[in-house]
Amino acid sequence: MSSFLILKFCEMKKFNNGRLKIGIQKNGRLTEQTIDLLKRSGFEFDAYGRRLFSTCRNFPLEILFLRDDDIPEYVQDSVCDLGIVGENVVKEKMAKVEVVEKLGFGMCRICLAVPRNSGIEKIKELNGKRIATSYPNVLEQFLEKKRVISEIVEVSGAVEITPSLQVAEAICDVVSTGTTLRTNGLRVLDEVLESEALLIGNLKSMNKQQKILERFLMRLRGTLVARKNRYVMMNAPKSSLEKIRKILPGLSSPTVLPLAEQDMIAVHSVVPEQVFWEVMERLKEAGASGILVTPIEKMIL
Description:
Elements: H1 3-12, E1 20-25, H2 31-40, E2 53-55, E3 61-66, H3 71-76, E4 82-86, H4 87-93, E5 98-102, E6 108-115, E7 130-133, H5 136-146, E8 151-154, E9 170-175, H6 179-183, E10 186-195, E11 197-201, H7 203-208, H8 210-227, E12 229-237, H9 241-247, E13 255-258, E14 264-272, H10 276-286, E15 289-295
Parallel strand pairs: 1-3, 1-4, 7-8, 7-9
Antiparallel strand pairs: 2-3, 4-11, 5-11, 6-9, 6-10, 12-14, 12-15, 13-14
């Protein structure tokens, strides 16, 4: 659907009712994780079948289910106040939107790739060559930075097969695991862009919906922060407390509680998941025992 038709649809369904509007991917790589994030953030809505929109039952929020390629444009045109979409799509569409939050999922790369048996080893060797891609704008900007002049062949799908069809000497496409490249006899030549899911917004629309937006972001960020941390509880000798305090990278001072044994204490803290195992090993060396680790459902800073 075009932006105009979506806008008319929203008007017919009384979307202009003071509710915050967010566009998310209807069906694709980010759909499941996006819906999971919103529901973990406490938003209750239905997401099944061929729905075009859903009204949140416990928050002034309307959710539009869209093609990912359309989301940046709908946010730019104020059809949606917010959108969740891959950074690769935002860069390609060159939409005038604000990046509100990086969401930490949907990681992928846009890469240049060539056939395994190709003699091309450096970017400069793509001068005068054809490159097939679904991301012509991203690729053009990358080539300009590298001072490489190539012919960009825009294709809408099945980019990986273009070298075997002699349509192009190289491709530029999304790479997640690299399996598709290997299956088609290709190897990565260079990385063009690292991408993850973004929450984007229309600045004018967000200013109008500031109070609702602040409530929305508090819930969303509470869930995002919680995902990145673990709650840790342990027993330790009182004599080890200073060592343990120096090891723990928590957001604030750890909670220290007395135990039945007079020379023992319980220490509770929050540990970022990215350094979790390193911290656990050091805590053990410092004398901690009975270490219990639990996930955090929500975390409001």
